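so i finally got all the pieces together for this one. its two components total, 572 residues if u count the protein bits. some of the lines might not be protein, just check the labels. i wanna see the whole assembly predicted at once instead of chain by chain like last time, that was a mess tbh
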Amino acid sequence: MGEHNHVNLHVSKFEAPAKLKTLSFALIAIGLLTFVVGLMKNQERLWTSYLVAFFFFSAMGVSGLFWIAINNVSKAGWSVSIRRYAEATTAFIPGILVGGLILLVGFKHLYPWANAETVAGNAVIAAKTGYLNTGFFVVRLFIFAVGCMLFKYVMVGNSLKQDQTGDANLTNKNVSPAVGFLVFFALAFSFFSVDLLMSLLPTWYSTIFGIYTFSGMFQAGMAFLAIVVVLMKRHGYVKGYVTEEHQHDVVKYLKGFSIFWAYIAFSQFMLIWYANLPEETEYYIMRAQGGWMGVSMALLIFRFVVPFLALLPRGAKRNDNHVLLVSALVLVMQYVDIYWMVYPNFFDGHVTFGFWEIGIFAGFAGIFLLTIMSFWSKHSLVPLKDPRLHEAINHHVAY
Amino acid sequence: MAQYTKGIAGIWTDEHLILKAARKTREAGFTKFEAISAYPVHGMEEACGIKRSWIPYVTFTAGFVGMILGLLLTWWTSAVDWAVNVGGKPFFSLPAFIPVIFELTILFAALCSVGALFYACKIPRIDPPNIDPDLSCHKFAIFIPFNDVGYDESKIEKMFKEMGATEVKKTEY
């Protein structure tokens, strides 16, 4: 406090680098091409790869909103100057609604419970049709997408309005919607992941599944935030407002949620392994055979062990390239994790990966990049009128 | 009973002033001085020139030792010394041992950290000299022991006064 140098405070206007823009359009073109070819040639493969990519980017979109909500609820000051980075990911949230509607076109290829013959031939699935039916599925998907859009509209909207009006009270007004969102999100995201991923194998259930996908979602969200913090700092868009102190704390989040993911993943695995009930173990048996055992082990090692040890030293959290590398690894493993939840249910349990998956993912990545870049180019990179901004500028991570 | 060191202490009532004072004291060449405050003052480590603590290394080592011991304990008791067939699972079933290994890792890491902290802070200090009772409330102090480099009472007193100390007194810490 009072110790820091306030001279070098500077925010530039963000302009999307032309190369990155071209790349995004190219990625979208690749995605569209894959989608159209897939519709004609290989529907099952198209929809499985679509589901993985859709879930990945939906999770990225809501991770920013969740992070803003916990910072609003805890009235955190240090994070104010990097809030716009997280708010940018929420620009993708309308994509959840659009992407969800597109998913409805092909969801009969994915979900056994949507197929009347399968339901008729399986008493266990037939007993679950009260929940697992097309109408209710659509309603839940719709509630999740529209709910997130509404909360985004209020919370991000207030933050942006503050840039114009400078009304400090808008910060307080954002607390109640944040509390509401956390409650809504806990339920809605659980339903979202149960519907989209768990119901691929309708005879199986895990009560911790929602938390499992949540932990992966938030770990990946923090990895993305860390990448943005490092790149924005490196390219000098923001000077003084965002420092390596903020980077340090974001990477602490990343490390903490790497541990949290391992904790939840192990909790889910250990209880099922120990109890050894046939209706529960099928999920892990499918993922312990053939090439899937290797993927399962890769998740354990590259999603927990490597990031945990790599991010343990203080110096590692402040080393830009190191943070970029580990964050990129975590993002890759988030994809592998969702892939690992979806794919063993298809293609006779063989590990199947190819240009379909890459193409569809590229399309989503292009849209995601475009939405966040257009968000940044429309708004200031730092909420300059936030009453807690001085706390963020003076933020200092003690030893 | 620990020996307390004689020295001289300056007392401040303003957090910003003591932060500057600590920096200047360090720049004046003193190395053994202590800054005393009722709560952590941001930037004080830098101002005093305190290096990073060695306690995290103790934590990591102790955690690692706890992990190995947990592994040995579960392996020895469940697979070697008194092997019991549980649900037809192998005697050495790592998933079942992870909670034990984890708990022992945390237990060792935590207890050793606390022990190392006590050692580093020379706790317990029974009935230590009281520089000023208000140091536990709204006052801050810098204490320079008599054996520090360039110790000169009148010079230090003058320096402290110049830096805004409300009071300077000869004391023990």
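Chain B touches chain A at residues 15-16, 19, 40-43, 45-47, 50, 52-53, 60, 87, 95-96, 98-99 (CB under 8 Å).
Chain B has two domains: 6-50+125-172, 55-120.
anyway lmk what u think
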